[in-house]
Amino acid sequence: MKNVVKADLHLHTVYSDGVSTPLEYLEMAEFKGIKIISITDHNTFKGSREAMKIVKERNFNVLIIPGAEIRTNIGDILVYCPEIPEVDHAPRDIYELSDWASERDCILVPAHPLDIFRHGIGLINLFKYDWKVVEVYNGGVIIPLVNEITYSICRRMKVSCIGNSDAHHVSSMAMCYTFIRCDNIDVESVIKSIVNGFVEPKSEKYVRRVKYRVRSSIIRRSLKIS
Questions:
Q1: Using CA atoms, how far apart are residues 110 and 130, in angstroms rounded to an integer?
Q2: Cα–Cα distance between 42 and 28 in angstroms, integer?
Q3: What would the 3-class secondary structure string for the chain be?
Q4: Is the pTM of this model over 0.85?
Q5: Mind spelling out the 3-state secondary structure of 55-87?
Q6: According to the model, what pLDDT value does residue 206 have?
């Protein structure tokens, strides 16, 4: 693979429950060296559509993967497509969504699957369906251990594992992210690399929390010694 690029494929804007605009995410992506992003607003592709328009007009060096986060009858599912769908909605039933995605060469990725308090699909549905890709690191989880458990399970399942920030504000962008290895930096090549497992999820949020706990422990021990 010729390219290894950093990606954050789970971002929310003002088109759903986020507070930042697609333009602000694009500016932050260039600042942080993120080459690939997906705007995944809840049940709409409007954020992705605007981001793609901005990239074209302003020549941002950022690739947009058209996406949305669909709240299905089993939980939240990220949908990544090679192009913006012709209609701005997708089925909520998981079987209908699967057929809809297959017709458009889109892929379905469970978002924060073991976080049942945030509409994750849960462990049973993680095993029940034939997922090709799963979001194992999510920057919105309260307990980082949930990410590690998800990653461990999905590696044993031999599915492709990705990490995303699930940012609702640009300040949270790339708290979790994915390194993607691909021959070409275009939508079809990137999606193919994701499905084929040429990815490496990362979690800065988890590392920061661990470092904070280690520092706190050292400080407490120092105070006791003194």
A1: 11
A2: 21
A3: CCEEEEEEEEECCCCCCCCCCHHHHHHHHHHHCCCEEEECCECCCHHHHHHHHHHHHHCCCCEECCEEEEECCCCEEEEECCCCCCCCCCCCCHHHHHHHHHHCCCEEEECCCCCHHHCCCHHHHHHHCCCCEEEEEECCCCCHHHHHHHHHHHHHHCCEEEEECCECCHHHCCCEEEEEEECCCCHHHHHHHHHCCCEEEEEHHHHHHHHHHHHHHHHHHHHHHC
A4: yes
A5: HHHHCCCCEECCEEEEECCCCEEEEECCCCCCC
A6: 52
Structural domain tally of the chain?
Answer: 1
CB burial of residue 136 (10 Å; 0-12, 13-18, 19+): buried
The domain containing residue 184 runs over which residues?
3-225
Task: Kindly report, residue by residue over 144-195, the tens digit of the pLDDT.
Answer: 999 999 999 999 999 999 999 999 999 999 999 999 999 999 999 999 999 9
Q: What is the CATH number of the domain that holds 192?
A: 3.20.20.140
Rounded to the nearest integer, the mean pLDDT of the chain is: 92
| Span 82-135, pLDDT tens digits | 999 999 989 999 999 999 999 999 999 999 999 988 999 999 999 999 999 999
